[in-house]
Each structure stands twice: as C-alpha cells, then as structure tokens.
Design goal:
elongated; mainly alpha
C-alpha cells in the first residue's frame, strides 16, 4: 500500500515538476501572495492585538510579509529545482541544494528575529512572542505539508530501482 501511495506522489510530483518548470515569476508571486493572505488570516486569530498595539503590529506584520516575498519565491524555486534534480542527482547538485536550503531558512529566521524585535519595541514582548510562536507554527505546518507531498530522494530512488 505504501508503494502505491508513493507512486501516486511521484506521478503528482512529475506533473508538478512539469508545471513548476513552466511557472513564471508572476505565477510564483500570485501563489506566494495567496499564501500570504491565508497566513495573515491565521495570524489574526493567533495574535490578539487591539488599539494602538494593533495599528503598530499590523503595519510591521505587513512589512514583514513584504520583505519575505523574495525569500518565499526563492523557496518555491528551490522546491522546483529539487524536483527537477531528482532525475540526475549528483553529490555536487545535492550539496548545492542543501546549501541553498540552509541559506533560505537562515534568511527567514533572521527576518523573523528582526521583526520579533521590531514588534517588541513597538508593542510589547508578549505580542512579539505571540507573533513568533504563530509564525513558527504556520511555517512548520506549511513546510510539513509540502514535504509530505514530495518523496525524499531516497524514496524516489527506491521506487525507480523497483521499476
């Protein structure tokens, strides 16, 4: 049963990688913007702010989202590149992908820390901590969902060898 599920995922990945190869910057930006709107709705539920704190928080949160558009689009492109690399993976390609994932995550973490400090200064540490927790929670959920859709390279190789 697991192998059938993996084959379905691989088929979807093949379809996805083909569509990813054709993803334009405008399409990537539209996807990232849609995700940003959904994240903002979730943040509104997870970070209860009111009054002057609300004005300051949402201004900074919007700045945070805008700043992270580049990082989010780069991460999408990295997922595409990963899927496209499964057919010709080499140690150099694997190392390059890992290095890019580390850099992308590091950039995201630095931005999160920067905006935690800005929100703390503009509101208070409790609101900033709620922002941090909510953002980490959502990013973890998004990453987990994406990674559940894509087999690991080892899984891909195992299925390839059986066929």
């Amino acid at each position: 049963m697991k192998i059938k599920n993996l084959l379905v995922v691989l088929l979807c990945m093949g379809t996805t990688s083909t569509s990813f190869a054709q993803t334009s910057d405008a399409e990537a930006e539209a996807i990232v913007n849609l995700l940003g709107v959904q994240k903002k709705e979730a943040i509104a539920k997870l970070v209860p702010v009111s009054g002057k704190d609300s004005v300051a928080f949402w201004k900074l949160y919007n700045d945070y989202q805008q700043k992270n558009l580049v990082t989010a689009k780069a991460r999408m492109k990295l997922y595409e590149k990963t899927a496209q690399s499964y057919g010709n993976m080499t140690p150099a390609i694997a190392d390059s992908l890992a290095t890019k994932y580390f850099a992308n995550r590091y950039g995201q973490e630095k931005s999160l820390e920067e905006y935690y400090n800005k929100i703390k200064a503009a509101t208070n540490a409790v609101i900033a901590f709620e922002f941090y927790q909510a953002e980490v929670y959502l990013l973890t959920q998004i990453r987990a969902h994406i990674m559940q859709q894509i087999p690991t390279y080892g899984q891909f190789q195992a299925v390839s060898k059986k066929n």
